[in-house]
Design goal:
alpha+beta, Aminopeptidase, 7-stranded mixed sheet, 6 helices, 35% helix, 30% strand
Length: 155
């Protein structure tokens, strides 16, 4: 398994990976219309646009992209960052790839300069991030209006 920086030509594979993974892994926690909305924003062009202001990484098994993740400044902040679009193909889950992606993001300059890092965690992934040291923002243990748990980590 190789984790490398995202390249613009990865956008098609990353978009497909996210949508496929969401439909398989997250479908028990979210209604179909949530996945449909995701499909409209995380198109290949949407992924490329997001990568303009974020640092993206992919996990590759040979030439196949099997995981992804991004880190960006939190609303342009120099002292806060946000982890985004962390997904691993269902057939590769449970092999430590998600952990490797997060560890890679935690070595990125946007993480290293930040005092606080936030993750809008899905219902499906909240416990995964908690195992990696992220905790509920302001102690709020309920999902927000977008059905995300706001988790954070201080450095």
């Amino acid at each position: 398994m190789n984790i490398r920086k995202f390249r613009a030509e990865d956008a098609e594979a990353v978009s497909a990976l996210i949508l496929y993974t969401f439909r398989i892994s997250n479908s028990r926690d979210y209604p179909p219309e949530y996945g449909e909305a995701l499909a409209k924003t995380l198109t290949p062009d949407g992924i490329r646009r997001r990568a303009e202001s974020a640092h993206g990484y992919v996990a590759a098994d040979g030439e196949t992209v099997v995981g992804c993740g991004m880190i960006a400044p939190f609303f342009g902040s120099e002292t806060e960052s946000i982890l985004l679009t962390i997904f691993v193909l269902p057939e590769y889950q449970g092999r430590g790839i998600g952990r490797q992606i997060v560890e890679t993001l935690e070595q990125d300059e946007y993480f290293l300069r930040a005092a606080r890092i936030e993750i809008p965690a899905s219902v499906t992934a909240v416990e995964f991030y908690r195992k990696l040291g992220y905790d509920y923002k302001n102690g709020a243990r309920e999902p927000d209006s977008e059905r995300h748990y706001r988790l954070e980590k201080y450095r």
